[in-house]
Automatic annotation (TrEMBL), chain A:
One Gene Ontology cellular component: plasma membrane
Membrane topology: Multi-pass membrane protein
InterPro entries associated with the record: MetI-like, MetI-like_sf
Keyword Membrane part of the UniProt annotation: yes
Main localization category: membrane
Localization in the cell: Cell inner membrane; Cell membrane
Keyword match Membrane: yes
Segments of this protein annotated with the region Disordered: 1-20
Gene Ontology biological-process annotations: transmembrane transport
Protein name, entry field: Sulfate transport system permease protein CysT
Similarity remark: Belongs to the binding-protein-dependent transport system permease family.
Transmembrane region(s): 28-48, 86-108, 120-142, 154-175, 208-239, 259-277, 318-341, 381-400, 412-439, 451-473, 505-523, 555-576
Protein keywords: Cell inner membrane, Cell membrane, Membrane, Transmembrane, Transmembrane helix, Transport
UniProtKB/TrEMBL annotation, chain B:
An example Gene Ontology biological process: thiamine transport
Record key words, sorted: Signal
Pfam family name, one: SBP_bac_6
Lineage start: Bacteria, Bacillati, Actinomycetota, Actinomycetes, Micrococcales
Protein name: Thiamine-binding periplasmic protein
PANTHER family noted in UniProt: ABC TRANSPORTER SUBSTRATE-BINDING PROTEIN (PTHR30006:SF2), THIAMINE-BINDING PERIPLASMIC PROTEIN-RELATED (PTHR30006)
Length: 588, 372
């Protein structure tokens, strides 16, 4: 290697740039596969089902019929629904980002005892089934409840709060994942040159974080814009969104004509948002100096020092700390503690009876399996979904992290990136019903995938892929291309560059990605609830079955089972954090 | 996908070429998850005339059978039953209509009388009448256009308002009895019901009010309810467990829309009384059906499964497992039900064909009047 180092060689092109003569066939094939495999997955399990179902709505008696648009847009209700969708999604996203960025700092940049536990805790809301969140929130807010005096029950504010409750962790983790690895020296230099800590944050740190913030904001926006259960439970139909309307038109009326118009509207809104987000990211994304997170950690220091050496709230971590403490305690922990306390009460007295009952099938056999069996089913399915999401999402992130020299190439990469975000922004009902009309003989294969248990993890993976991409990508993109160039110059083959540069650095965000994908699957988001499910109850399904029936103890058991789901999530998140590749920490 | 660029389109063509490989890959990846996937799709050989082999029973989320009974049935008949669950009665029916040309399974359970004619009109079902169907069951059966039975009744129950006895005793207020009572000032802010657009008991109660007040009067009745502080929740669990004072959730409202059977599940500690009761003058009767799907791969065996659901052994488990009354009079009914969960003597009723014709219009009119 040393001998080759003096041979002057031009820096090699980025792999997706135009093939030069002598470019190894194997390399082109591999990159081709990295593009084709995820695309094929997206086409079969997302694009084709969605387009088929939406297409059905535009065909009447064998003719194209676009009259639905005119009808939909001439009703004021449609416009109100579009407005409410945008309103709650924008507010939910803004609040999540404003509260989440300080949270990312405190939970990922600062070192303090109990940090890991709180990090795990903030993820819990993300996986809780809506019906449980409904109980957790509404039993607090309902008249006569502990927070009934706020009169928030059934209000728009309650919906926005619940959206933040769900999505806070997305911002904290996505932004925190990058922040933890940001070299602190640039900010320190700015401080040493006399910038106030606010100014140093604003001019040095914030621009560096912008891609991660844009990433998080776009995911949260998509989650908020397609939020369905939480909107119905907390606000009812007066705050109906495009998503709830598609749900009603499709599942209750089977009015595909109206549903398809709404799906197109939803697609347009989502595509517009993705475009803006990808523009923002592209402008901001640049190579950053990344370190191991242990090296850039700093001890939490509440107070700064004023010019005269006195304690001052400025310059210390007091403001982000207080903001985060309030969010974590009031917004996240209160509903969860409410849930826990309720699960531990039977007939007004403290009791573990609800937890003991988890080994049974509920009052008079409300469940077909015990809650523990259901938990095992959930874990098994989530493992498969996570594996699929990691393979597909990892490949997408790898391809999208390249910066081709040609404009066309850059465009293609950006489009690919946005395409894989779409599953978060398209109605789960449309995807689920789309599966029904397409996967009876997928690609002509004699396998009815619709009723095969296999479709459940696949549908979950479709939703988990964008989470994996968004978690891994900011780190991959922040890798200085010169590092790769240096490796090539020193004679490393492309595969080796990938192995020694990209993979070790990306591996550090892998823990987060695994945790996210697993959590998304555990919580049964997306199309799964509209799939034909074989009779192998997962934990959220068991909770739904229990709380959907009268019977002494079923309600208590549902709450206890929710606490088990919460605890399981927290444990998985804690474990995933251990996979963060610390051993590679000293490399840079 | 409108913004698909030329470049992307090319990749998509490429993608199509390799989708088979991807499908294989994902199959391989996921293959370890559940052992029963392999036998998921019955081969086309299933269409033989003998009533054995695999049957896929498509049903709603609340379906439940005794596992031992099912195993015994499978052993006796040589039929293997695969159970597929999807959503509530409405979603189930609509999914069956959508997949009519390539049915999801062989038999269905869970279509109710509010969706019955929709399924029949769409041609989702095949003719089938169980050989020894009890006459009490036959009165509920739904026929196809040729006058032959397509939907076989399995169970029924009443959707009624429930009251919390303890709350009314404590406050010294007399309990309401009729629909009109609910609009009186004495019961202001006390009632919670489910939304007919999002919940099947909600739809049942809307139909009850249409039956009682007529198509001309039901919206005025709802407006009066709303003016009297009615709360509308999206689903049963939300109304019953969060807003209702008589259930484990201990909410604020003592009148809730639930089932006539619910009081059998709120017994006092010594099981001698129940703490809630149903208002039997406010009930809508719900009937749940089974049937053989048109285009089933194994119709003969599917018919046997439908017959089995009407058998005395299965029917006797229905109150405990599905919270409904069995249609077969030979089935046993739990003592608590006889005592605490009586059915309405004169339930409110709307003909199934009228429901199918007007469901959407009624729900839309209701939404405009009550939700705004």
């Amino acid at each position: 290697m040393v001998g080759r180092a003096h041979t002057p060689r031009p820096a090699p092109d980025a792999p997706t740039s135009p093939a030069k003569s002598g470019l190894p066939v194997a390399r082109v094939t591999l990159w081709g596969l990295a593009v084709v495999v995820p695309l094929a997955f997206l086409v079969v399990f997302f694009a084709w089902p969605v387009l088929t179902l939406v297409g059905k709505g535009f065909v009447a008696d064998g003719h194209l019929d676009l009259g639905g648009f005119g009808e939909a847009f001439s009703t004021p209700r449609t416009w109100r629904i579009v407005g409410l969708t945008l309103g709650q999604a924008v507010l939910g996203t803004a609040a999540s980002v404003l509260l989440g960025v300080p949270g990312a700092y405190v939970l990922f940049r600062c070192r303090w005892p109990g940090r890991g536990l709180v990090r795990a805790l903030v993820t819990v809301p993300f996986v809780l089934p809506t019906v449980v969140v409904g109980v957790a929130f509404r039993s607090l807010l309902v008249e006569g409840g502990p927070l009934g005096f706020l009169h928030l029950d059934g209000t728009f504010t309650a919906i926005v709060l619940a959206l933040v409750f769900f999505n806070y962790t997305v911002v904290v983790r996505t932004v925190g994942g990058l922040w933890a690895r940001l070299d602190p020296r640039a900010e320190q230099a700015a401080r040493a040159l006399g910038a106030s800590s606010w100014r140093a944050f604003r001019t040095v740190t914030l621009p560096a974080l912008a891609p991660a913030i844009a990433s998080a904001a776009s995911i949260v926006f998509l989650f908020c814009a397609t939020a369905f259960g939480v909107v119905l439970v907390l606000g009812g139909l007066q705050y109906g969104t495009i998503e709830t309307e598609i749900w009603i038109q499709t599942t209750q009326f089977l009015d595909l004509r109206t549903a398809s118009v709404l799906s197109v509207v939803q697609l347009v809104v989502v595509a517009a948002v993705l475009l803006v987000a990808s523009r923002t990211r592209a402008r901001r994304e640049r190579a950053l100096s990344l370190g191991s997170d242990r090296a850039s950690d700093r001890r939490l220091r509440l107070w700064g020092r004023g010019p005269d050496g006195t304690r001052s709230a400025l310059g210390g971590d007091l403001v982000p700390f207080v903001v985060t403490a309030v969010v974590v305690v009031v917004l996240l922990a209160t509903p969860l503690v409410n849930l826990l306390v309720r699960s531990l009460h039977v007939d007004g007295a403290w009791s573990l009876a609800n937890y003991r009952a988890l080994g049974s099938t509920g009052d008079r056999g409300a469940l077909s399996v015990t809650v523990w069996d259901a938990t095992w089913n959930s874990v098994r399915i989530a493992l498969v979904a996570t594996a699929i999401a990691l393979v597909v999402g990892g490949l997408v992130a790898l391809v999208v992290s390249r910066r081709p020299r040609r404009r066309v190439g850059r465009r293609a990469v950006a489009t690919l990136d946005s395409l894989f975000m779409l599953p978060l922004g398209v109605s789960a009902v449309t995807v689920g019903f789309g599966f029904l009309v397409t996967l009876d003989r997928p690609l002509g294969l004699p396998v009815d995938l619709r009723t095969a248990g296999l479709l459940v993890p696949i549908a979950q993976a479709v939703v988990a892929v964008p989470l994996v991409v968004r978690t891994v990508l900011p780190v991959l993109r922040a890798i200085d291309p010169r590092l790769r160039e240096a490796a090539s110059t020193l004679g490393a083959a492309p595969g080796r560059v990938l192995r020694t540069v990209d993979v070790p650095l990306a591996a550090r965000s892998l823990g987060l990605a695994i945790g996210f994908a697993f959590a998304a699957s555990l919580g049964e988001f997306g199309a799964t609830s509209f799939l034909a499910r074989p009779d192998a109850a997962t934990l959220p399904v068991a909770i739904f079955d229990l709380i959907g029936r009268p019977g002494q103890g079923n309600y208590g058991m549902a709450l206890a089972a929710s606490c088990v789901l919460a605890a399981l999530t927290a444990v998985v998140m804690l474990a995933a954090e251990q996979l963060r590749g610390e051993r590679d920490g000293g490399e840079l | 996908m409108q913004h698909t660029t030329g470049r992307r389109a090319r990749s998509t063509t490429l993608a199509a070429g390799t989708t088979a490989a991807v499908a294989a890959l994902t199959l391989a990846l996921a293959g370890c998850s559940s052992d029963d996937d392999a036998k998921a799709a019955p081969s086309s050989a299933g269409s033989s005339a003998s009533a054995t082999g695999p049957v896929t029973l498509v049903t709603h989320d609340s379906f439940s059978v005794d596992k031992k009974q099912l195993a015994a049935f499978e052993k006796k008949t040589g039929i293997t039953v695969k159970i597929i669950k999807q959503g509530d009665a409405g979603q189930l029916t609509n999914q069956l209509v959508l997949t009519k040309d390539s049915p999801l399974g062989d038999a269905v359970f869970g279509i109710d009388n509010t969706f019955a004619t929709r399924a029949v009109d769409a041609g989702v079902l095949a003719d089938h009448t169980p050989a020894d169907q009890p006459s009490q069951a036959a009165q509920y059966a739904v026929d196809g256009s040729d006058g032959k039975q397509q939907l076989t009744p399995v169970d029924y129950g009443d959707v009624c308002l429930n009251v919390d006895h303890a709350w009314f005793t404590k406050k010294g207020v007399a309990e309401p009895k009729t629909l009109d009572d609910l609009t009186r000032p004495a019961y202001k802010d006390l009632t919670v019901v489910e939304n007919p657009a999002t919940s099947s008991p909600g739809l049942a109660f809307l139909l009850a009010t249409i039956s009682a007040k007529g198509e001309d009067g039901y919206l005025d009745y709802w407006k009066a309810l709303k003016a009297n502080g009615l709360k509308v929740d999206q689903g049963w669990e939300d109304a019953y467990y969060t807003d209702f004072s008589g259930a484990d959730g201990k909410g604020p409202r003592p009148i809730v829309l639930s089932y006539s059977s619910s009081p059998a599940f709120t017994l006092s500690k010594d099981k001698s009384s129940t703490t809630t009761g149903a208002l039997l003058d406010t009930c809508f009767r719900q009937v749940e059906y089974a049937g053989v799907l048109d285009g089933a791969k194994n119709p003969a065996a599917a018919a046997k499964v439908v017959d089995w659901l009407q058998s005395t052994e299965v029917q006797s488990t229905i109150p405990d497992l599905m919270y409904m009354y069995p249609v077969n009079p030979a089935a046993t009914i739990p003592t608590a039900w006889k005592k605490f969960a009586p059915l309405a003597t004169k339930p409110l009723d709307v003909p199934a064909a009228d429901i199918t014709k007007n469901r959407e219009a009624w729900i839309k009119a209701w939404t405009a009047a009550v939700v705004g």
